[in-house]
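cron nightly-structures :: item 1 of 1
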Amino acid sequence: MRVHSKLTPEFEGLVASAVEQARADRVFDRLWEHDVTLWAPEGTPEIANRLGWLRVAEATLGAIDEIDAFVEEVRGAGMTDVVLLGMGGSSLAPETYRRSFGNLSPPALRLHVLDSTEPLQVVAVERDIELDTTLFVVSSKSGGTIEPNSLFRHFYGLQPDGMHFAAITDPGTQMGQIASEHGFRRTFVNDPDIGGRYSALSYFGIVLAALAGVDVRSELNAAVAAQRASEDESGLYLGAALGALANAGRDKLAFVIDPPYQSLGPWAEQLIAESTGKQGRGVLPIADEPPSQGGPDRVYLHVRNGETKSPDVGDAPLFTVDVTSLSGLFFDLELATAVLGWALGINPFDQPNVQQAKDNTSRVLAEGSPDIEDGDFGELLDGLEPPSYVAIMGYLAYDDAVDEAVARLRAKLIERHGVATTWGYGPRCLHSTGQFHKGGPATGRFLQLVHDDETDAEIPGEEYGFRTLVAAQADGDVQTLRTHGLTTVRVRLAADDLAGGIDALTARV
């Protein structure tokens, strides 16, 4: 990875000092030595057993013949589609591969990434496939995550032939046991020393990319090359620089991403937000934001493909990285994020606040939905200015018209208030930016969008369906945010005009 920077003299000195400190502390060498004291005292959970990503590209490359044989077996069985049932770290890398390379022509399988418990989204995928020619891949590191397990139950209820299923999970998990009991076609057992958001180059990312027709051998070779080239300290420089700027108040990192890699945004959001948003510190990654000249809390990262012109961001710090491969970029950003954790003085491999929202969801499912006040949209705007940011979270089915309406709302918030904005679908956001929302700097204001459609989908073996599950996740999210004293407003939209409802909010700004 080559990194170019455009910095004012003030920021040049700040960054140079941080990079010099990183070299003095031997950060790069200690990272490769698996020295956990880079981030926390010896014995701190979720560090020593979370560094397998450093060399996972080599390990996965060693299994490439096995992966290729599985792909040929699936094609030979007449499968035309593959549906990934996953969440967070197990779904965002495959989605980035899919969108970056496109759905390739047959014999590649058509990849559908289902990382939502919104029943309208579940039903949409169900209608888009033929059950008799579809492979379902249940992807879960822990093997006990509620979303992929519920999605498995739903689709196994429709297609009770285990040969239409495969699993990707860690050793000894509940999902591995389920796969054995139900006669899954295959179970890929991943290296347990890799956290979900660092797993793009493991089985979690590569098996799905291979099924979708991506040349994964070439991608993994590029990742290995990036790993070996990391000695040029580009990742060290970027991570140390972002940390120094964040410590100086520039803690919002906006991505400007060239085609065809625009879908990198959600993956990068999870990697950086979930890794750094804790102990009241962190860097907030911002994907797909409307163009702006930035503010006093902004830094920009241009992911450049070719010789495209850098964006005009005024005097805001700007870093440009040149992409030679998607998989190489995955590795480089993971390494930079690990260094960023050192610069911020936090553990970049745990996610302590994610569990809070899960616990609240479980409580709502057990005890019933609480009486939650929606709040007032005006409260969200009152006194709104940097360093505050607005996070918009839609517990909705994925929809281009919704994305476009939210983009208009974000543009208006930037124009009128000059604040950073983010947008993410729930419950996906609970497993990514949700950690930053609860554990990062307490400067966020939160707008949750829900709707009034009552369409449901069954979860066999449970007394509730997906409509109840996604509502419980939305309720749990609001409860957790408010418990942290954060301004959180819920707006219920008419399901037959979601974009119009969002545009009405834009008019109020």
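cron nightly-structures :: done
The first helix runs from residue 9 to 24.
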